[in-house]
């Protein structure tokens, strides 16, 4: 291929551009504009939660979601070891006792049996993150959390439109979070959302997003908050994109299915299938793992080789227990996270843009099959 195929490219329609142009001309550019509330309502309605709070990123959504639970220093929280660092940072800042869970090899999500085993009397919350492809079994976790009075935070940043037994991801959590970064199902450039059915969480989340301004005296603040507001320009783009969510999901599935067709016969690779018994895979990104260790290839080497064919790719997340910045913390000491270690070393994801053509996908797959042949 003559032209470089990037790992991701946002799909912005003319209608998105027109609606943003119109709102900029109207002067309503900050978070005070009317589209923020409209976006929150439409989005929470789509998820099936009563309330939505639009924020500046998925990371901001997680900061706030954990803050509103009012956990105390030393309370236990269970988090996946194989995820983005945004999940763990608020727990570190609040001085919570973190228990990490290893992932599964087949879907890369947190292992549910291990999660349940880690629950103790001190466990106050679980953050369940949906990773790359299939959703994590929040339907199972929800029942356990309810019984044991543990809060379930559902990080659905990568899973907009994904379902479990036809119920939307993001609708299971006591509080759920989303990201609208440029590579997500819908984008607002940067941005995020919190959704919940809990009115108290909703009210608190709105305050934390907006510096906890005082009620009587605006500049005598109620609490320690952030400026995590979403602008009216971003919300306008979000509304416009959300209108197309069904066709976006269909396209994602098409891209994933097409890759699966070309890559699944390669015995040296693993690519998750398009369906399982509880979910249709909408392939937020096209993740693959090198299975044959005898090839002498890991994710990094394959990425370098793909680059030579003009194909962009990305490594998998770097697991929490291997982060240099956590080396003085004790939460992962003397524990083994073999599966996260394995997939972070041998995993990578391929170009995953919504507008990839069949010809491009075939070309990328052929190159990858060639690179990983023995
Ligand atoms: C699972 C998950 N959670 C949270 C985030 C953070 O979102 P943002 O980049 O909008 O801060 C991401 C970002 O990609 C993510 O993949």
Q: Could you explain the architecture of this structure?
A:
- This protein is an alpha/beta fold.
- It folds into two domains: about 15-240, Type I PLP-dependent aspartate aminotransferase-like (Major domain) (Aspartate Aminotransferase, domain 2, 3-Layer(aba) Sandwich), CATH 3.40.640; about 245-370, Aspartate Aminotransferase, domain 1.
- The protein contains twelve helices and 13 strands.
- The protein has helices at about 15-25, 35-45, 60-65, 90-95, 110-120, 140-150, 200-210, 230-240, 245-265, 300-310, 340-345, 360-370, and strands at about 50-55, 75-80, 95-100, 125-130, 150-155, 165, 165-170, 175-180, 190-195, 270, 285-290, 315, 345-350.
- The strands form three sheets. It has a seven-stranded mixed beta sheet, with helices on both faces.
- Helix 6 links the parallel strand 4 (about 125-130) and strand 5 (about 150-155).
- Helix 2 (about 35-45) packs parallel to helix 8 (about 230-240), helix 3 (about 60-65) packs across helix 7 and helix 9 (about 245-265) runs parallel beside helix 12 (about 360-370).
- The longest helix is centred in the C-terminal third of the chain and has 19 residues, at about 245-265.
- The radius of gyration is 21 Å and the shape is globular.
- The chain starts with 13 loop residues before the first helix and ends with a helix.
- Bound molecules: pyridoxal-5'-phosphate (PLP).
- The site of pyridoxal-5'-phosphate has 13 residues, from helix 3.
- Pyridoxal-5'-phosphate (PLP) binds near residues 83, 86, 129, 158 and 181.
């Amino acid at each position: 291929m003559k032209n470089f195929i990037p790992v991701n490219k946002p799909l912005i329609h003319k209608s998105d551009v027109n609606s943003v142009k119109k709102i900029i001309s109207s002067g309503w550019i900050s978070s005070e504009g009317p589209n923020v509330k409209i976006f929150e309502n439409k989005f929470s309605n789509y998820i099936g939660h009563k309330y939505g709070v639009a924020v500046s990123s998925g990371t901001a959504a997680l900061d706030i979601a954990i803050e509103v639970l009012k956990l105390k220093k030393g309370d236990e929280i269970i988090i996946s070891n194989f995820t983005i660092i945004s999940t763990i940072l608020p727990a570190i800042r609040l001085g919570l006792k973190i228990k990490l869970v290893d992932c599964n090899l087949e879907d890369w999500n947190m292992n549910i049996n291990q999660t349940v085993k880690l629950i103790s009397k001190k466990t106050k919350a679980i953050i369940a993150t949906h990773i790359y492809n299939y959703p994590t079994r929040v339907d199972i976790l929800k029942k356990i959390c309810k019984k044991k009075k543990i809060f379930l935070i559902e990080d659905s940043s990568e899973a907009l439109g994904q379902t479990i037994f036809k119920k939307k991801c993001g609708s299971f959590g006591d509080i759920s979070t989303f990201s609208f970064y440029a590579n997500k199902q819908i984008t607002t450039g940067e941005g995020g959302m919190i959704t919940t059915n809990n009115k108290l969480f909703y009210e608190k989340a709105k305050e934390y997003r907006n510096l906890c301004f005082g009620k009587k005296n605006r500049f005598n603040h109620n609490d320690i908050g952030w400026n995590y507001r979403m602008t009216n320009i971003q919300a306008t783009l979000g509304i416009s994109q959300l209108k197309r969510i069904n066709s976006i999901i269909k396209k994602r599935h098409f891209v994933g299915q097409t890759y699966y067709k070309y890559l699944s016969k390669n015995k040296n690779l693993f690519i998750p299938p398009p369906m399982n018994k509880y979910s249709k895979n909408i392939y937020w990104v096209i993740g693959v793992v090198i299975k044959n260790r005898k090839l002498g290839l890991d994710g990094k080497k394959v990425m370098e080789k793909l680059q030579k064919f003009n194909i962009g790719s990305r490594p998998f997340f770097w697991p929490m227990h291997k982060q240099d910045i956590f080396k003085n913390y004790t939460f992962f000491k003397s524990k083994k996270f073999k599966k996260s270690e394995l997939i972070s070393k041998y995993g990578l994801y391929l170009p995953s843009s919504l507008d990839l053509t069949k010809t491009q996908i075939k070309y990328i797959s052929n190159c990858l099959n060639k690179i990983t042949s023995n």
